[in-house]
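Chapter summary example: a protein plus EPZ.
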Amino acid sequence: MDAILVKGNGPLRGRIPIAGAKNACLGLMPATLLSEEPLTLTNVPRLSDIATMSHLLESLGTEVQALNEGRVIVTSSHEIANDRADYDIVRKMRASFHVLGPLLARHGHAVVSLPGGCAIGARPVNFHLEGLQALGAEMELKDGYVHASAPKGLKGARHRLPFASVGATENILMAATLARGTTILENAAREPEIVDLVKCLRAMGAQIEGEGSETLTIEGVDRLHGTTHRVVADRIEMGTYMLAPVITHGEVELVGGSIELLGSFVEKLHEAGVDVTPTNEGIRVKRAAERIRAVDVRTEVFPGFPTDLQAQMMALMCTAEGSCALEETIFENRFMHAPELIRMGAKIDVHGNTATVTGVERLKGAPVMATDLRASVSLILAALAAEGETLVSRVYHLDRGYERVEEKLGACGALIERVAA
Ligand code: EPZ
């Protein structure tokens, strides 16, 4: 099993290319099930989660072709040969559950494994099921699987999500594109990945209004056709790498991203004393002051502070001036990185969903363990500025969401390498 060895090595300088968004792709790829015609996605990140989704779609009978070293994926679902999404695949990646809505809408029947628990929280799928039932689907939970059917097809309806869930919005939105009549989805998620999915579905012939707002209106159509869609840039990868020059007193240009995708994350960085400037190709980031100021953070749905950048922000706050409170409101167990940062000399107190961080002069390298995707990269960020060596183990978590992290940081002067653990 791989680990990553990092030696603190002073300021990072250079350019980092931002890949297409993992979380957009995991919403976009299941859309292929809605049409007999090919869906081509470009700017696809090369990640293990994308490979898992490809594997799942192939198990349903979809042809999946990876071109241009995996940057382009062509998927064709001429027919739905199999409507069962197996536990063996779904347990590896919860986003597999996003095939339920499209299968139901196109095929009228689906058997999809429940995803089960996750390191960062219970993460039930009740909002997905309730939304699809509002469109007329019949559901039965049996032996760990959702057995769903809509023998007469789905029917448009007005439905309000109890919480602006990203995954539930994606599932219901895709199902509604082929439902008879109008669906009005209230309290819908507003994340850039949702906007990207709507753009792709519209290019496939869907009739949708309201992306980026709290209400989506979908006019069902009889069929969707194929299209080619460029995946939006990965705002979480971008936000992560924005902190690398800040935590090391350097300066980096992130190529291919834009500030609009980041919601209030950029305001928080400004508050902390970070200089973020748009450039022709992306954004440039560096410190505006000698010492970063500690700032309070509360994670929220978009355009609030993204929960997927909370761990990385904690790593930065570990050496900030003063102390701050980080409140996690989206997931109930998303501070697994705190005890590992404490091993590196950080001062962090976790009570319920709030972590209080008191800045120290400098962290010290130590062997640490990754527990989930974003926790793993927060340990790498902390290690970049720590004294001495840090060995981060269980980096398979990292490979799910970060492409070639050693190369991207190494190109900016980081001493970072993948080693066998
Ligand atoms: C998406 O997960 C992202 N994953 C997550 O990124 C991200 O953290 C999350 O949205 C929030 O922004 C993908 O897009 C593949 P939710 P999702 O449904 O869709 C509760 C990463 O690091 N909930 O918006 O699963 C749920 O438990 C990952 O890349 C229910 O209770 O998130 C959570 O507390 C991690 N019932 C909250 O809502 C439901 O039916 C938000 O979940 C659905 C959700």
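Key point: The chain has 14 helices and 24 strands.
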